[in-house]
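Record type: monomer structure entry
Structure origin: computed from sequence
Chain ID: A
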Amino acid sequence: MLEVRPNSRNVIPGEVFFTIDLRHPSIETIEIAEKEIYAAFQAILSELPIAGTLTRIWDQPPVAFDPSCIESVRQAAALSGYSAREIVSGAGHDAAYVSRVAPSAMIFVPCLGGISHNEAEFSSREQCARGAQVLLQAVLDYDRKIAEQFG
């Protein structure tokens, strides 16, 4: 996100506000990137007659989902005959918070043109139904694993 004030094509801005969202499965990689960004920012400021600050406004450590849940989702997609690929999201969805107290994973349904978290996001009813089918199969598979473990 970038805010320029005043926001006019023919006026030199007096203030710029921007955000950077760093996501990676490794907290160490995030910390290295943050240090590099801070160093680059300071280097830019030292060369120009301007002032600026960087402030961390939010901190969400990476979440590692439960390997057994992930395997259940993987098997559910295969059993249902759907293609799948594993992705690292970094998203702050409910599953990230649930993972603090219970095993969890996430299932993403494809969006038209890959556009997500945007007003233009669209997934067909068929795609959503496929996602629900994968969810159902994953829950059943995970339930069988738990029953075998404790049964």
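Annotation 1: The longest helix spans residues 125-150.
Annotation 2: Residues 126 and 132 are 10 Å apart (CA to CA).
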